[in-house]
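Bug report

Summary: structure tokens for Serine/threonine-protein kinase RsbW differ between web form and batch submission.
Environment: batch mode, default settings.
Steps: 1) Submit the sequence below via batch. 2) Compare with the web form result.

Sequence submitted:
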Amino acid sequence: MTENAARRSIDVAVAPESLETIFEAMSAWWDEVGEVDVAKRFGFETAVIEIAGNIVEHSEGAGADRRFTLELFADASVLSATFRDDGDPPVVDLSSVNMAGEDEESGRGLALASAGVDELSLRRVGDRNVWTLESRRT
């Protein structure tokens, strides 16, 4: 476990190629975080990528200057990720998210994200959507 806090922040365009930037940032961040249970790490990474993909999918094309930020944080007790995006307010109730049926082509992202972390929340702050993901390390 890390004795000090590990932090990483990025600011990217709402575009599919930004997902690669997120992968790279997470890879460097994990090096600073230290040892994490493999299942916990996989769940957290999956949740981060699913939320990033959701932001890109539902905001892309809505404006060429759309951007979002990701702040990653870890200390001895928690892993967290906070996204802020300037997209339209999502119309979603996270408490009612369920896994899509096997015949459905979409609808799994939020369910996978929710399953991968201990807490997933979404709120609107001013003109920003704020997604918060948190996993306890123990």
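Above is the batch result. After comparison, the two runs are identical; trailing whitespace caused the diff. The first strand starts at residue 6 and ends at 13. The chain has a mean pLDDT of 85.
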